[in-house]
Amino acid sequence: MDDIESGHLQELRRGTVVLACLLILRTPDYGYALLERLAAAGLAVDGNTLYPLLRRLEKQALLTSEWNTDEARPRKFYRTSTAGETLAARLLQDWSDLTRTLDDIDHGDSK
Amino acid sequence: MTAASTLTDRYVFAVQRSLPEAQRAEIDRELRGTIADTIDGRIEAGTDPASAEREVITELGDPYRLAAGYADRPLHLIGPALFPDYIRLLKVLYIVVLPIVVAAILLGQLLSQPDDIGGAFGTAFGAIISVIAHFGFWTTLVFAIIERSSTYKAQAWNPSTLPQLPVGSSIKLSDTAASVAWMATILAAIAWGQFWPLFRDAGGAVIPFFDQALWSFWLPYFIFIALAELGFQLVLYRARRWTWPLALVNVVLGAAFAVPLIWLLLTEQLVNPAFLDAANIAPLFAGDGVVTIVLVVVTISTGLTDVVAGFTRAARGERRAS
After folding, report:
1. Size of interface A-B (CB pairs under 8 A)
2. CA dist., res. B291 & res. B266, Å (int)
3. ipTM of the complex
4. Of the four listed, A21, B60, B175, B290, which is most buried by Cβ atoms within 10 Å?
5. Following DSSP, what letter does each residue of B41-102 receive, concatenated?
6. pLDDT tens figures, B6-53
7. Has this prediction a pTM greater than 0.80?
8. Where do runs of H (alpha helix) occur along A1-111?
9. A77: closest chain B residue by CA
């Protein structure tokens, strides 16, 4: 039963990682720090999922990247692009629409 | 420390080895940084520095899988978009094309080397194995390539490709039983013709009905065709209705049986001359003898009836489908 539940939860949360990344990366950050920020926000995601995802979003021009070599360890910083902002706004709108729809269904049922 | 850094080196090397050349340098750099950051984070959180690296790399997982994620490459040979077409094609190849190819090889072998029946069946058996392997391999290869060429769009599925319901099967059990009984009769006749002591020669040995020279090829051939026909009846019964491919196989089997039989009858090769003499019925079985003519006419008419019935029933099924 727990397997079934966690499977469905995972399914439900799948798309939210992209949205969270686009929202968080309005302030530029590098891979590991983003992973930590997501975890702190309660959206724990595996590195082997997140790092390829960042690359894919960059390829889709939703993120831009820049190497920061000021510190001893060079890091690749990602930032949400204008296209990324537009998409994030669209996804966020959809998310709140869905919340409202599900709420309506839920309350309509329990009447 | 040297040993510890080697593990990261080995991991990054393994990841970038399965990446396209253009992405290697950058992913190498980023991945090293990320692994180092994660290790530092673990150590800060209290993990034993000695095991932190192994732990981090274990969590990143199979390097091939990670590289596939970076390169946006599928982790399957044939994905869900193509899988139904793939399975359908394999079924056609194995159920329809394979038997035809094997039958053609067997026939070719038997005709070119009539004396070597065991060899012909051996060749056919070897052909089955290699044709199965070839069909499977090349089909899979082509579909795996299509899967990796992003331009391909799977064709929209069309409801009119749905098969007909098998209800009210147009194959009657009585028809199947009659065909099976007929084939059993042929097999029994061959056995009977060989062993039934109707006439004995001077030495007391049984005089067989069929010409013994036929054992070098034609009698085993007819046994094979009869067994193939039995198999066909089984397939037909399970299919529950006539289809065009089945009607076609029916023609091939019918012709494979009737044509040699008629030829042997007309050229007086079928019946053992010693038997005809002993029974004193040689004129009846001559090329223009009464029995020969009757048998030829019966063979042709039953064969044609069977072939036509197959096609008309396939056509009827088709019409009901559209």
Report:
1. 54
2. 11
3. 0.86
4. A21
5. HHHHTT--HHHHHHHHHHHH--HHHHHHHHHT--SSSS-TTTHHHHHHHHHHIIIIIHHHHH
6. 789 999 999 998 898 988 988 999 999 999 999 999 999 888 888 999
7. no
8. 2-13, 16-24, 31-40, 47-59, 82-110
9. B30
